[in-house]
Amino acid sequence: MKKIISIFIACIIITLVGCAGDSNGHEGEAKTPSGSSTQKGRDYIEVVNDFKEKGFKNIKTEKMEDLITGWLTKDGQVESVSVDGDKDYSSDVWYSNDVEVVITYHTFSKEEKSDTESSDEKSSETVKQSTNDTSTESNQEILTVKNNKDLAAMLEVKDEFHPIVGEFAKKYAGRTIEFDGNIANMTQHEDYTTRYDILIYAGNYSETTFSGPNFKFEDVSVLDLNLTGSKIPEKIGMGQNLHITAVIEEYNGVSGLFFIKPISIEIR
């Protein structure tokens, strides 16, 4: 009987020692984030940040200067990621934290970028020369509650399905608006850990009231928000008051969501 008890105690000790060894057995190592197939198509900066957060120290980026228009593939979109030479690595695998991580992404060649910029400049100059109509110039003005009564009226409504919202979105599609708002809700976009869907209301944050449409930043990273000003926090989240400059994308009359693309965000 004593032998059985001794053996039992010995097994417990071995198990505890083994567990302790496991908890401290990854010093100098880093664990991979999402697998290689998941990384393809993401923005390379976000992928770099993911690997940094996991503890990898030897991260390199390689450009594929193969874009012509950027319609199907976006500038900065990841083509492949390799860890220690393996492009088919799996998630949650431990490696030495100094193994080489190579993130390959698509971008424009220097010549293509130069041609695009030159073309844009010529197009802009042509527009300026073709008309002296002051209304054309005003179309480029950022819309605010002070210079646009339609925006001011829309931000006061208490119903995201109010007809004025859809009318405004249709009339001013593609234009830039600037207004005070707040983060009413913020969730991760799909399975990503660094991309978010952010619901924006007009005015200051309140738990009981709201005004304006259900503005939404969809599938954005913190970098996409282009945070400015002297009060940039380490983290952003629900309840923060913002001063928003964004481009009107579209309004969905079924969901009541008004999609906008951030240009710059200042924490108020």
From TrEMBL:
Transmembrane portions of the chain: none
Top-level taxon in the UniProt lineage: Bacteria
Cleavable signal peptide: 1-20
Coiled-coil ranges from the UniProt annotation: none
Annotated region described as Disordered, given as residue ranges: 110-141
Compositionally skewed regions (Basic and acidic residues) per UniProt: 110-125
Claim: Signal is one of the keywords in the record: yes
Keywords linked to the UniProt accession: Signal
InterPro entries registered for this protein in UniProt: DUF4839 (IPR032290)
Bias (Polar residues): 127-141
Protein name: DUF4839 domain-containing protein
Originating organism: Metabacillus halosaccharovorans
